């Protein structure tokens, strides 16, 4: 009986160690996912700002091209 009890205790101890390992891995995966979501949002925001700036520059170029093609001054 003592041998069976010791085996059960070892199994229980191993189970708790496995659960602790799973918890560490799960926590790490959640941190990585949070970082990637944050990085995604940051990139989307910066790309949206860049897109606005490029759109403004495109409009300015179109305006200048129209002025030059009509022979107008740039003043």
Automatic annotation (TrEMBL):
Family to which the UniProt record says this protein belongs: Belongs to the BRK1 family.
GO cellular component: cytoskeleton; SCAR complex
PANTHER family in UniProt: PROTEIN BRICK1
GO terms for biological process, alphabetical: actin filament organization; cell motility; regulation of actin polymerization or depolymerization
Keywords: Coiled coil, Cytoplasm, Cytoskeleton
Source taxon at top rank: Eukaryota
Entry keyword annotation includes Transmembrane helix: no
Signal peptide: none
Name of the protein: Protein BRICK1
One term of GO molecular function: protein-containing complex binding
């Amino acid at each position: 009986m003592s041998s069976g009890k010791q085996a059960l205790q070892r199994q229980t101890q191993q189970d708790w160690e496995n659960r602790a390992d799973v918890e560490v891995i799960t926590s790490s995966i959640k941190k990585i996912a949070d970082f990637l979501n944050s990085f995604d949002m940051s990139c989307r925001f910066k790309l949206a700002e860049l897109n606005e700036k490029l759109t403004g520059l495109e409009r300015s170029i179109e305006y200048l091209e129209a002025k030059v093609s009509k022979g107008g001054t740039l003043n």
